[in-house]
Amino acid sequence: MAQSGTRIRNEIRTLRFHHGEMTQQQLADRVGVTRQTVNAIEGGKYSPSLEVAFRIAHVFGKPLEAVFQFVAESK
Amino acid sequence: MDTSFEEKSVWIQLLSLVVGLGGYLVVAGLMLSNGVNALPAFVPVFAVAIVLIVAINVAGHVVAAISSRGDGPDERDRLIGYRAESRSSWILGVGAIGAIIALILSVSGVWVAHLLLISLFGSEAAKEVAQIVYYRRGI
User: Fold this and answer.
1) pLDDT per residue over A9-32, tens digit each?
2) Interface residues on A facing B, Cβ-Cβ cutoff 8 A
3) Does A50 score more than 50 pLDDT?
4) Could you give the CA distance from residue A70 to residue A7 in angstroms, rounded to a whole number?
5) Are A44 and B138 an interchain contact pair (Cβ–Cβ within 8 Å)?
6) Average pLDDT in the B17-42 region?
7) Kind and range of the H or E element at A55?
8) How near does any CA of chain A get to the CA of B15, in Å?
């Protein structure tokens, strides 16, 4: 998934799809942030805190690395 | 536009600031250019500006609350607030130092007061613009 803004890419959209097309609002409610923040994270416009990242991974029952990946700069 | 209550609140504060304090500064500028130098003459205009700011804020937040979910600020809202504040607070600092220098140079109190008011307006407006940019473009 190509994203701009941060070097943290994520699989939230795919994971929401695989969890019964979970809405951003449902995910936001379970994580404890606003829907707009979930939207910003999903779109690569905001890198969440470690706690929120773990909360999102916990909702999907996945390890953190399965949800968020750091894209290292190529030399 | 996909906006949270917190972002709407920033827009409302910016609008009230521009209309209230911006309007006051325009009127005060005209009064100063016409030779009005007594500080008490500005008090009624300033009072109207404060009433305008409060009225726009109250009405705007009521409308925003009706049209939004009642979510409070989350970590992204707080981070945006901190970053915007750190990028804009220097304006008020410069104004305060300018006011001290003006007092040392025995500049009239009415000019010193308005220098402080302009720096407060600039600092708050810059903060709110920065918040909106962070909300729209990402942080």
Assistant:
1) 999 999 999 999 999 999 999 999
2) 5-6, 32-37, 39-40, 43-46, 48-49, 52
3) yes
4) 6
5) yes
6) 94
7) helix A50-60
8) 22
Assign A75 a pLDDT band (cuts: 50, 70, 90). low
Q: Which helix (H) or strand (E) holds B58?
A: helix B43-66
Cross-chain Cβ contact A36/B4 below 8 Å? yes
Q: Which residue is it, tokens 């779109």? A: A43
The two structure tokens encoding residue B81:
């607030």
pLDDT of residue B98: 97
Give the C-alpha distances (Å, rounded to integers) separating A47 from A20, B8, B52, B119.
25, 22, 38, 33
B-chain CB neighbours of A36 within 8 Å are 2-4, 7, 76
Mean pLDDT confidence for B7-36 = 95
**A48:B137 CB<8 A:** no
**Which residue from B131, B133, B101 is spatially nearest to B116, judged by alpha carbons?**
B101
Average pLDDT over residues B75-88: 96
CA distance A66 to B3: 29
Nearest CA in chain A to B2: A36
